[in-house]
Amino acid sequence: MTKNKYSYKTIRSPSKEILFKEKKSKFYGYTFPLNHEDEVKPIIDELRTLHSSANHVCYAWQIGVEAIHYRANDDGEPNNSAGMPIYGQIQSFELTNVLIAVVRIFGGTKLGVGGLISAYKETAKIALENSKIINKVLKTQIKLSFEYEEMDTVMRFIKKHQLDAISQNLHLNCEIILSIPKNKVQNILGLLKAYHKISVETSA
After folding, report:
1. pTM passes above 0.70
2. What is the pLDDT of residues 54-69, one digit of tens each?
3. Last residue within a domain, chosen from 81, 103, 136
4. Number of domains observed in the structure of the chain
């Protein structure tokens, strides 16, 4: 994945099922947006239920931008003949926060390790080509703390700079949490220094 500290590429939504055939074996490909590793098992279990006659449900996933986590699973196919070719397509398309699963139904003719690598790679590639790939902007949270008398000042600042307030606690001692694109954080922090009655904290 190409390093970009401000944005990343992923898929918008689960893809439609695609089918790739090789020597009577059927390979069904799927892609899913992914935010947590815990989401993987229920998806794979559902695919096993959907394709109850399948011999293998192989997959690969990657999560993260600054700290990358990934896994490739051959599900009984020869070592590195399925999961890694699938994962290679995640890398080739420079994606993250994505799961690709390929379901194989054996057609009676062995493909050999080379044939398997090619088939799983091609199925993953077609599945991604049928997915809506999007760019997502990385954001940082900033907490503003201030007394109620500063409310109008803070709200004008938020409106002027078109900032996204994701949480607010507006009592005598007020707090507002802003979600700001990483490429704008330093500029916003610099502007906030002029407001001495507003305390600013940034997320780690």
Report:
1. yes
2. 989 999 999 998 889 9
3. 136
4. 2
